Every structure is written in structure tokens, then in C-alpha cells.
Amino acid sequence: MTGKERIKRAFARQKTDRVPWVPFVGCHAGLLIDKDAETFLKSAEWIVSGVKKAVELYRPDGIPVVFDLQIEAEALGCELIWAKENPPAVVKHPLCNGTTLESLRVPGPKAGRIGVSLEAARQIRKNHPDLAVYGLITGPFTLALHLLGTDIFMKMFDEAESVHNLLGFCRDVCKAMSGYYIEAGCDVVAMVDPMTSQIGPDQFTQFVTPYVADIFADIRKQGTLSSFFVCGHAQQNIMVMAQTGCDNISIDENIPLDYVRSECEKYNISFGGNLQLTSVLLLGKPIDAQKNALACLDIAGEQGFILAPGCDLPYATPPENLQAVAELVYDDYKRDVVRQIACDTPDDERLDMKEYGQADKVVVDIITLDSEACAPCQYMVDAVKRVVPEFEGIVIWREHKIKHRESIVFMTSLMVRNVPTICIDGEIVFVSRIPPKDELIAAIQDRINKKIRLRIQRKKVSLYLLGKADEKMAQVRENLSQAMKELGVMDVNIETIEEDGLIAGFGVAPSQTPAVVIAKYQVKSLRRIPEVLVIKEWLKDI
Amino acid sequence: MAQEKAIEVWILGGYLGAGKTTVLNAMLAEPFFADCNPALIINEFGRLGVDGALVERQELRRFEINKGSMFCICTKTDFLKALAEIAAAGRYRTVLIEATGIAEPVDIESFLKDGPHAGRFQLRGNVCIVDAAHFTQVAAYLKPAASQVRWADAIVVNKCDLVGEQERAVLRRLLAELNPAAVLCETSFGKIYPDFLQQVVRRPRQESMQPCAPEKIFAVSFTAQSPVDPAAFEKALARLGGKILRFKGNVAFADGPAYVEVIGGRQSRKEPQLRLSQQAAAPTVFTVIAWDIEKEQLRQAFAECGCQA
User: Fold this and answer.
1) Residue A73 burial (10 A CB sphere; 0-12, 13-18, 19+)
2) Do A157 and B248 touch (CB under 8 A)?
3) Residue A539: per-residue pLDDT
4) Of A56, A76, A453, B288, which one has the greatest count of Cβ atoms within 10 A?
């Protein structure tokens, strides 16, 4: 199944082999080819290159041509200010500055940057025949705000008819833009109308529904799919949005996905969203992106859902976060792993593992999903099993299946983030990679060597001479001194115990003296409270 | 090491045109802010640089935020960057945020608690500027206008010189209904009472952070094809009384059409606006902004004189 087929089936709420994924790559694609947002959004060539790179990295099923809600506004005379890491912003609204609505004309396919976008759309269509190409248009309400500014909210009461006239014009612009994108080969026309989140369902029905319903009907007539994008606090409008005749509703993190799912199911339309843009995709780590994606997938179910970010991706989104989402989408096994990790332990439940790995034996911990159920885990466990006998009892291994809570606690305490992972004496050594035999042996040997050095540095000895001061005792003391001298051992404490009661405390009868007891000390923990798990390792040595 | 003191944050919100920048200047001139060196974050939809240029204390560090994607959640990145820079500078004790008229204050509050600088900032006060002449009109259409009032610790009712005492009284009741705990300053030309800022107390919220408030203020449009009985119409208006904040539109009375307007309980009539009726394809077409009443009750009241929502 191609991405395009997958998207089309999802839009029709039909079963798909997996959930389709559409990263809303706007100016972020500029980052991928080292172009700032302005340079990127003004050039068809860079848009095409950026999208190509995004397709390589993120393996999407569908991709927008460009995500810029100012294209139509600019063509209609709105003044823009450009930024390096953002789409441009409208700073002057022509209808507030003397321009009349009657003087505005629906822009042609070459006006302003519309030509750039359409040229890019044609090329992207050609380059990626198997992907669903999204043509994004600015919705009529948002476009009206660009043209008139926020005065529109006053005029909805004061001059309702002039607002309707304006929205009628914006509808015509939307229909023209849809036609241009459809002609350029787009499979989906996504109408982005975020400003509708500012009004309630009554106003939506009065001022938005008549126009968007007309636009969606027009798109449908041309045999193309439509999506209605909204962002912001728009939960109150989801029901009326679903009644406008669109094929899909896409939302951001401000609206609960389960609510959108239930509303869309009532109207038999599909829905998409709502990966968190800033706190997860921009500022989070790959594992955060995967957990968020998994949460979306779990809530949304497998039918009629398209996994997507809530809105235009921030320019500086780390590509690895989106790659991590793609990995999750493609890989069932990865989903299982993340599902386990998602039951993350709070910080206060984590174990203090700083003293882990102080046992005499080297401990190899293998963190797996379950070696009986997961092939990579099985290969990793087998690799360790093969090597351990070569160390003749000084290496032990254990598998920690993260199906169990205590294993997750162990895993997070060791800061392990991927499965399977091999840790040697608590240090992460092999991550998601089955080590060749020689490499694993070398890693274990390295640890043994370190351990011997540490042991020598850390061990202390006391010698107890038990017995009354007599000739025999004197001889024993002399021999001890001689031996220490010959070995160069200087830091051994020698203590003489003469009292019978104390001698008995060593398990020696007075009649058995002179006796020598060697007590070995090993520093196991300093200035911290060792965990029970760690202490158990020490005790096993005894 | 002693824990670093959190940077105090003031949020200044309110619909565009309410006089936020004027109040901002008044606040900055107060002894309360005169001695500190506050950083300013200015976020306005479609007016980049304009509000910033109007700030009288130009020596203050300003961060202007305006994105093509114009929503709080999309401006979050820029907000977090500004906050990070302010935190890193280490020389600011106070930040003033002039928020866009379409901002949901809960979003801004959440930005302060989010990201790598969480804990470095503490909200000191949320001040909402209300335009006395237009609030009841805007609040019915623009959802955040009412939530900005709900979340405020202080409300500055500006432009009081433009409205009569009756309208002010209605507005006072409405604001008290939306937010009874906020301190109130009724003023004109953005002047705030001396020591007003000292009275502002940040109240921790027990409510959910969801910005969607129950609709206390709403607008409903009505049409009628048949002539409206003037007596029944007057009866409906009298019955609804103070529940109607505004009324505007053509009413085709049995004895002749008129453009009726009701603001603050005062009714006026003019010649009908023909285009309005043509567009609605109905001789009677009007919109009512009401509050403190169920929508269904409002619909029922006008249904009794033959008007349908």
C-alpha cells in the first residue's frame, strides 16, 4: 500500500495496514537544507529540496507543499514582516488602511508567491508519486482577519453584512486556491482556519459554515479530498466543523483527541493530530516524541486517523524527534517497547545505582522486551549466553524483561532508553545492537581489568594475633613482619588480642592460641545509602 | 547556595483598542515599576512593532512576538525563547507581558510553567483592560475577551468617559458576575489609581485550566418574514430587561419597519437598513447580545413575537 493509498483509505475511514503519518513540514524543511525560513518560503526550488529531504528523513505517507498562511494575504496586499525561523507575519491589514473590498480581486495562479507554491506543488507531485500531496490554503475566516484585522469581531455585530461580504470574497479566494492546487496535482486540499478557534459555535454557524461548506463541496466536486485544520482552543466548534462537509478534521494539542474522535465518528469523517509541537517535538527528546505519538495512536485507534503534528512544525524541531515518530509508526515492535517505557517511573522511585557493579563478579544485564517474544532481544541474550562461559564463573548475566515493573524501575535507574541494551556492571555498553563475540568479550574483559585495579585499591586488611604475650606469640609477630616486608605490604593493621573473652569472640578457644585471623575489608559505599538491590549483590559475594 | 528569587511576571491583557499600551505606560510610570528595570514582552496580532514603538520607556528591553501562525500555542516557541533570554540575563526582577487581544491568559500562564526555565518565573498579577464602550459587544463574539476577565486578578475598566452611568452599572454587574474577586479600577485615558498595583493579589486558581468558560455572554441572530406586533416586541424586550446587553437590527413592525438599537437598556429607532434585510432575505433581521440567561429562554422570548433564531 502506498502512502497515497493509505491516506485515501484513512480519509474514507477504511482499514489500513498501519496508521498513516503526515508531518506538517513547513519552514522546518528549510532547516533540513540549511536555508532560513524567508529564503526557503520564497523559492520553489528550495521548497522542493526541503520536502525531498523531509521525505527521506521522515518517511511520511503524505506531505504538505508549503505551510504558510500568509501566501494569499500577501497576494491581496497585506504587508508582511519576515523572520528567519518563522513563517512571515501580517503587519498591515489593507481593509484598515483605505483599501476597499470592492477593489480587491481574487488572485491569479501567478500572483505573489502563489506561483512559487504551485510550481513547488507540481514538482513535488512529480518527485513523490506515491505520497499524498497536501495543498494548504488559508481558511476564509483567517484570511478575513488578515485583510481586516481584529476589527472583524466588532463588525460581526455592528456591520454583519460587511463581514459576510468579506467572507464571501475570502470564500472565492479559497475556491480559486483549491482549484490551483488540485490542478497542480495535490491529493488533499487542507483548509487551515485557526482564527475560528476564537469564536463560539453560534458565530461559527453564522459566519463560517456557509462559506466553508461551499468550499468543501467545491473540492469534493473536483474529486479531491478535503481537510479542515484548526488550532487553538477550538473544542467548542468541533461538532459544527464536522457538519461542514469536510472529509477530515485536524487539530492541535489544545483539543482532546478522544473528543475529536467521538465527534468525527458521528459524522463518519476522519481526523488527525495532535502531536505536541513545542514541549515535545521541539524541546523534547526522541523518546518523548515516541511516547506522545504512541499516546495519540492509542487514543485515536486504527481507523480513520492520521498521525500528524498539531500544526506547522517549529523551524528548529530536531529531526531526530520526527525520525523517532516515523520509527514508531513503521515498527510494531518499537511501539511495544515504547509502551513499556511509557509506564516510566517517577524520579523518586528510581534506584540509586551509583554503587551498582561493585560485586566481585562482573554482572551483565540485558534489558529486553522479552527474549522469548522479540527477535532482537533473543539475539542479544544469545550473544551474551555464548560468551559468559569463557569467563569461567566470574561473569554472571541476567535478563530484565521490561514487561515487569521492577525491570522498568531498573532500566530507568540505569538511564537506559532503548531496548535491547546490554549494561556491564551498570554501565550502558551496547544499545540496540547485537555485539559481535569479540567485541563483547573485549568489553567484559575491560571491565574485569578495571575491577581488579579497583579491588586492589579498595581492599584493606587487619591481622589479629590472638594469644597471651609469650615466646610463641613473639615468633608469630616476627614472621608476620618478615612476610609483609618481603611483599612490600605496608598498610596492614596488626592488632594483638590477649583477653580470653575477646579471643572467644573470634571463634577461637584460648587453648588454640597462638592464632592468627585475617579480616579483609572492602569499601562498598561512601557517603550514600546503598539500595537493597545493590546490597544483595554484595551479600551474594559472601 | 541560596535559592534564586523568582522573576515576577505581570500579564496585561485585553481586547485590541481597549488601551493596553496606554495602561502599560501608566504602569511603567508608577513608583512600583519606576525603580526596577522590567523586561517587556509585547505580543500583538498583526501590529508588530507598533505597540513596542508606543512604549514611553524606550530604554527598557523589549521582546516583540508576532508569528505568521498567530496562536498562542504557535507563539509558544518564541515566548519560551524570550523567557529563556530574560532568565539568562540575570538582571531582571520583573517582566511585563502585553498580550495580544486574542490571547487566552491560561496559555501564557502555562508558558511560564513550561520548558527549561520552569520555576524561574512567578506570576505576580494578571491585569485585564476592559473597554467600557465595547466590551459587551466584543465578548459575545470573541471568546478570549470573557476568559481574559475571568482569569484576571485586576480589571481596569478604561474609556469610562464614553459611556453613561446606566451602561457602567450593567458592565460592573457583568464583570462582577464573571470575576467577583478581581480588584477593579474604573478610569479613562488609561490612568490607574495610585497604589492600584499594590492592591493586586495573585489568586491561585482551583478551577481547571481549560479556557472554555460557560457562555455567559452570547449573541443570537433572529429573522422573521411576517410583520412583528409592536406590543409583543416591547413586551419581549421588557421581559428580558437587563439580560439584553445589546440589540441591533431591522424590525418590520406591523405599523412600519425600523432599525432598532438597544444599548445599556436605552432603545433608539432609525430608518431601516435595507441591505441588511436583503442579505438575510427577511424584512426582520436583528442580533441580540445577552447574558445571564439560557439561550433557549432568549429564543422563546422572541419566538413569542414571531421571530426565529
Assistant:
1) buried
2) yes
3) 80
4) B288
pLDDT of res. B245: 85
Contact A156 B219 (CB under 8 A): yes
A421-424 and A362-368: which strand pairing?
Answer: antiparallel
Identify whether the C-beta of residue B60 lies closer than 8 Å to the C-beta of residue B37.
yes
| Between B131 and A352, the higher pLDDT residue | B131
Cβ contacts of B102 on chain A, cutoff 8 Å: 150, 198
Percentage of chain A exceeding pLDDT 70: 96
C-alpha cell at B232: 409583543
Please check whether residue A25 is in contact with residue A51, taking contact to mean a CB–CB distance below 8 angstroms. Answer: yes
A239 touches chain B (CB under 8 A): no
Contacts of B22 (CB under 8 A, 6+ apart): B158, B189, B190
Q: Which residues of A355-390 are buried (b: 16+ CB within 10 A; e: fewer)?
A: bbbbbebbbbbbbbbbbeebebbbebbebbeebbee
Q: What is the dihedral of CA A22, A25, A29, A30, to 10 degrees?
A: 170
pLDDT at B134 over 70: yes
**Residues B24/B98, Cβ–Cβ less than 8 Å:** yes
Q: Tell me if B274 sits within 8 A of B186, measured CB to CB.
A: no
Residue range A375-408, pLDDT digits in tens? 778 888 989 998 999 888 889 999 998 877 788 8
CA Rg value for chain A: 35
Residue A155 CA, distance from chain mean position: 44
- Whether A149 contacts chain B with CB within 8 A: yes
| DSSP per residue, A305-333 | EEEEESSSPPTT--HHHHHHHHHHHH-HH
Top-tier CATH class for B7-197:
alpha beta
CB contact under 8 A, B74 and A206: no
Q: What is the CATH number of domain B217-303?
A: 3.30.1220.10
pLDDT tens sequence across A127-138? 999 999 999 999
Compute the distance between CA of residue A534 and CA of residue B18 in angstroms, rounded to an integer: 64
Q: Kindly state whether B67 is in contact with chain A, defined as any CB-CB distance less than 8 angstroms.
A: yes
The per-residue pLDDT for range A266-286, each reduced to its tens digit, is 999 999 989 998 888 988 889
Convert the pLDDT of each residue in A238-247 to its tens digit: 999 999 999 9
Q: What is the DSSP string of A80-139?
A: EE--SSS--EEEE-GGGTT--GGG-----TTSTTHHHHHHHHHHHHHH-TTSEEEEEEE-
- Ranges of each domain in chain B: 7-197, 217-303
Q: Specify the amino acid at residue B151.
A: W
Give how far the C-alpha of residue B115 lies from the chain's centroid of Cα atoms, to the nearest Å.
28
Q: Which of A13-27, A493-507, B45-59 has the lowest mean pLDDT?
A: B45-59
Radius of gyration of chain B measured on its C-alpha atoms: 22
